[in-house]
Write a structure and sequence with these properties.
primary methylamine oxidase activity (chains A, B); homodimer; 11 helices; Amine oxidase (chains A, B); Cu_amine_oxidase_C_sf (chains A, B); signal (chains A, B); globular; 32 strands; four-stranded antiparallel beta sheet; Beta-galactosidase, Chain A, domain 5
């Protein structure tokens, strides 16, 4: 099918679909209701309103090379039963929860939408004490449901077959959008005659229209008491990369529940629609001349492991690799959740706790343009859009190497029915040619020694596509006990239309708020903050946070030929405010989480440290509404006492929240954190000043931080890893077609 | 041969060797001369005094799997002739230079040692204008020679067959030590009866002794006018890891030329020799139980490329890979020198200049202990020890993956004769499972798009073992135009003996200057600074340095619902002081090198930026003698106008220098740098507070920075790279023995 025709057909079909879905799932029926019902649409809607997913309980067959492998992840989701206290809700459990909810008022009596439906994790002590031979703790579900009465936070006991707790949601702040919220919102303006007129006046064919649902943030009282969203649109004429063709200055304010157009701003019709030229990025559509150059110059290369990977994923979720064991699950909000992280100690022969739970808690992505169509772009991608919901199936061989294994996500749609996001997470062993440790003796000593050990790591990866942007999140486990958490940014910029097509037209004093990337296209400056929740349990739950500050000491006259040296001062944080950390290059510290009850053989406290790498700090005014909501980025590190209800740094109800329930607010309570079960929060940051290389799609930019043992082991725990020898390595030949 | 016997024999043989070498090569013959001459020793000495190297002109045969490969590096050094203006001196050229020098007074009339003998690179404009079909510019050698008269900097023209320039060295500061300086110095104290008596008094057998040559730094007038070195010793009884068994408090001050013991300090004979238990790290000597755990859990894994690598190394030194071309050579001081870095532009179809020359200019490693036996440990590893001289042959399959190719170094020994350091540099393509760029459409837009490109890079690596420490230096080239410079630290700590074997014995107020790592062993806190010389030539030699400062702008009341946003302010540096940069997290900037005469199609200045990652800053008092010598670490970035004589950040003559010829001094001249041929200097830093995991050998710690295109290309230059497809990838099976 030719590209444009295909896209148009797709749009029209989706449009029909989605209006139907709105009808079925919205608590408030849309006023203008022109649904088309056909048999196959109804069939689809029997299962779930989200029909754009083709991955129901029968995911596509795995590619051949993954078929007969012993480490294949269980994919029969229909029959799967949980085997670990932290296993996510199964298809059957989601269905059961839904049926319980359907007979529970007000859900039984009112239209409703399910915004969250996940495992209510058992109390930590139950999980820690559980052993595999014992039955699971009671299985419970946690649901956030929106009805005509507002939001409800419910706990459903699946053994007791009933709702055991129901709490109303807060006055301000709404739950995470459903996929159905987002998709239906993008099409809703088409029901508005004035909107259509505006589009046509811009010279754009309605079938070329692609719109995005943009969270509104919160900027004052007039935005309260209803779920609002802003819609901005693009032209997908002659390109799949519609993001590069913004209809600049056109913003529709929409009521997300009624789908009513509240306001249309159409301010910059003077700005031309940027051209489609050079925006395409799909390999099949590129001019062949573009890629011939690379095709012939890079020979096939692959990470090969013909004996198969060294890890297992037991019972679907427990990853066992080298000296590590942890529980891995997909989550609609956080994406990846890593739990019960345990490492084998070669000295004691025991398995030791490192971290109870680690996840991406929230993102904050403020754009740096205060003008009308841009000021509100201050995304919080987890709490508003669902970082896991946006994690699409990974592309085997490209998103992850050939030796990767994949895990599906099982989530609930807006109607409470389960759906499967296939291949949402991959797990693979990485050998990148790096060195775990080495030493060669030099001619100085004359000893003939050269001992080098290759570094092999285990990577857990997902990639979330929050509309234009793609976030690649890696948890990488090293055999030496280090965990590297890395975030890569790729995808497509959110750009702004401009009348300029060359910098020589721009008056010297005019602020473009970004960089001219192509004719009539500005890449607007923005930041990315990704805040991680790290419930460290170093050899047990009760830990302390220690700032090891490196301070210059000056020697006394005559004491030494040296005037100065660095000394490490240890400060144990007593309360939360002691642990609000901003990094300073000229006042450096290490940040340890220690177990004050455990010492090494030599009397050092056992610990892990958080090691920052390149990062950025938010410079926005703390009283700026977006920064108040994103106040969890005011410091790079925070430490709080463990509290079940404090997992989402921007609050549980982030959408249109005012910042009343963020990590920054909790930390101000200044609770004791010494020798307590503590949670460490770390924020990775990026300032992004776009450049032409980011057009039409961005090369990946990454940053990371490490969680690293510090006097946790008695000595180097990988002293014993063997070197590579030729006779062990794979025997390979080139593919016939390569 | 059993370990200890082997070591003892080795020591005795080496000892004999080295005393002989001292006799032959030192400008001042040692006073107590008990050389043993045998025929084979003399044979060896006919070639070069450095007999510990077994890699003469016939390096060991390459392993089988490297044999018949088209990309094999030329190894017939005896007959090799230069083919590029920047090619290092060949074996023949070094011999020729030596013969010219031997008839040049005062070398012809006095004992001498050759401290540097390398190519005198032709003037930059000659290199830039040279084309392959033309003859090379005149070949010249640059030599630094020490005679009884002091040091001499000489230029030798190999076509004219004569010395064309001779300049005396500075009054203070000595040339880089030769390997012979270092090795002979470690054995020299054995000629001193008092020294031997001291060792015996410590209860140590002389055959177990291993000593290290420690540069003295400079701490005052009394250390001037002779080449001094400090020797500290260890016991290698029952371990190859003698570094963990320091004879604490014993320091010998030695005259490096006369080998005369100037002073013996023996202060802490109360401190016991740490035990050898658990110090061994050689795989063959470890308790098999230690490594069985890992052996069985990690299946073989390899980067495989059965069609061979995609790069060529033309004429031995010009690397051609994907869209990159550059000249690569080993250097005795810098290690790796990358020159004439050029990238293919897919838009224009042309090759464009990026960097004229990049190298590791200097290292500064101050230890943070001001006491008697430690205060002077403030190493400058390039200018004192020779970062390239210390780069040992890489271990195939472990230092570099199986698909790597190797390059030998050809250097001059102290007598001016050439020797070959085989496999000193490796080059390989890396596929680590990473993603070059990606985008998947989410259900929000409903488009069925998932485009992902794997990231394949080219790595140039060397590993220098400066006695205990191992530095792994990678230059990694990405197809998107980014160059990542990464330094990994591994090897063995320099440790301090202590009487404590548990922290509970340490009085609360006592400063250990580090961490107790094992019984009686302290890992002393220290910093590492690695300063890179980056002669950027972005699309030509005349460039400017631009600081793009991100500053918070506050909106006026009523202007916007936002109170604040970030704006990029561009500051073009006029002179050197404008470009002395200390990083500030809360005052962030980008650092661009632009070509002010070139713009993109859209009118943006073409440029590259330096992107810092995790780093550390030196906090020492600027007036502290070590910091005065290491003053090039006072900022993280400096920019200077190109000047042939300013390549070594710590000065040309670093040994015992007083800091009078460092980058910090040059930069204070505040010369104009706008639209000039400029050099950017970047310092990578690490604070290292040792922990028990660093014992007995350290897991690698890495940090890096990037050199990255910013509006250099008109658009993403890797839009055209193809995705991986199954049919192109290698066909592998497990090795029979795996």
């Amino acid at each position: 099918m030719e590209g444009k025709t295909f896209l148009r057909s797709l749009c029209l079909i989706s449009s029909g679909f989605l209006l139907l879905l709105v009808f079925r799932s919205s608590p408030n029926f849309p006023s203008s209701n022109n649904t088309t019902t056909t048999k196959n649409l109804l069939d689809c809607s029997l299962n779930s309103p989200w029909c754009t997913s083709k991955n129901r309980f029968q995911p596509k067959p795995k590619p051949d090379y993954l078929q007969n492998h012993p480490n294949l992840i269980i994919t029969n989701h229909e029959t799967r039963i949980p085997t670990h206290p932290l296993d996510p809700l199964t298809v059957q459990e989601i269905k059961k929860t839904r049926s319980i909810l359907l007979s529970y008022p007000p859900i039984s009596t009112s239209p409703f939408t399910v915004h969250t439906l996940v495992l209510e994790e058992p109390d930590k002590h139950l999980v820690l004490n559980w052993v595999k031979t014992e039955p699971l703790p009671p299985r419970q579900a946690s649901a956030i449901i929106l009805t005509n009465d507002g939001s409800h936070v419910l706990t459903i006991d699946l053994d007791l077959n009933r709702v055991i707790r129901s709490v109303p949601g807060p006055v301000s702040g709404y739950p995470m959008m459903t996929i159905e919220d987002m998709t239906s919102a993008t099409w809703a303006p088409l029901s508005d005659v004035n909107f259509n007129r505006t589009i046509l006046a811009r010279g754009i064919d309605l079938v070329d229209l692609a719109c995005l649902p943009i969270s509104t943030g919160w900027f004052g009282k007039k935005e309260e008491k209803r779920r609002l969203i802003k819609i901005q649109c693009y032209s997908m004429q002659d390109t799949a990369n519609f993001y590069m063709r913004p209809i600049e200055g056109l913003t529709v304010l929409l009521d997300m529940d009624t789908k009513e157009v509240v306001e249309i701003s159409d301010n910059r019709s003077d700005i031309p629609l940027p051209k489609s030229a050079n925006t395409e990025y799909r390999y099949s559509r590129l001019n062949k001349n573009t890629h011939t150059y690379f095709k012939k110059l890079v020979n096939p290369i692959s990470i090969e492991q013909p004996k198969g990977p060294s890890f297992t994923i037991d019972d679907g979720h427990v990853v066992n690799w080298a000296n590590w064991v942890f529980h891995l699950k997909p989550d609609p909000r956080a994406g990846v959740v890593i739990s019960r992280v345990v490492i084998h100690d070669p000295d004691s022969g025991t398995a030791r706790n490192v971290m109870y739970k680690g996840l991406t808690s929230e993102l904050f992505v403020p754009y740096m343009d205060p003008t009308d169509a841009w000021y509100f772009k201050t995304y919080m991608d987890a709490g508003e859009y669902g970082f896991g919901l946006q994690a699409m199936p990974l592309d085997p061989l490209n998103d992850c190497p050939r030796n990767a294994r994949y895990m599906d996500g099982v989530f609930a749609a807006a109607d409470g029915m389960p759906f499967v996001r296939s291949n949402m997470i991959c797990v693979f062993e990485r050998y990148a040619g790096d060195i775990s440790w080495r030493h060669a003796e030099s001619p100085i000593t004359g000893l003939e020694i050269r001992e080098v050990r290759p570094k092999v790591t285990l990577v857990v990866r997902m990639a979330a596509s929050v509309a234009n942007y793609d976030y690649i999140v890696d948890w990488e486990f090293q055999t030496d006990g280090l965990i590297r958490v890395k975030v890569g940014l790729s995808g497509i910029l959110m750009v702004k239309g401009t009348s300029y097509d060359n910098m020589n037209q721009v008056p010297k004093e005019e602020d473009l708020y970004g960089t001219l990337l192509s004719e009539n296209v500005i890449g607007v400056i923005h930041d990315h903050y990704i805040t991680f929740y790290l419930d460290m349990d170093v050899d047990g739950s009760n830990n302390s946070f220690v700032k090891v500050n490196l301070v210059r000491e000056d020697t006394s006259p005559g004491e030494s030929p040296r005037r100065s040296y660095l000394k490490a001062h240890r400060h144990v944080a007593k309360t939360e405010k002691d642990a609000q950390i901003q990094f300073k290059l000229y006042d450096p510290s290490e940040f340890h989480v220690i177990n004050p009850s455990k010492e090494t053989r030599l009397g050092n406290p056992v610990g892990y440290k958080v090691v920052p790498a390149g990062t950025a700090a938010s410079l926005l005014d703390h009283k700026d509404p977006p920064q108040a909501r994103g106040a969890f980025t005011n410091n790079q590190i925070w430490v709080t006492p463990y509290n079940r209800s404090e997992q989402w740094a921007g609050g549980l109800f982030v959408y249109q929240s005012q910042g009343e329930d963020t990590l920054a607010v909790w930390s101000e309570k200044d609770r004791p954190i010494e020798n307590k079960d503590i949670v460490l929060w770390y924020t990775l940051g990026f300032h992004h000043v776009p450049c032409q290389e980011d057009f039409p799609i961005m090369p990946t930019v990454s940053s990371s931080f490490d969680i690293k043992p510090v006097n946790f082991f008695e000595s180097n725990p990988v002293l014993g890893i063997p070197p590579n020898v030729e006779n062990d390595l794979p025997v390979c030949k080139a593919a016939a077609s390569a």
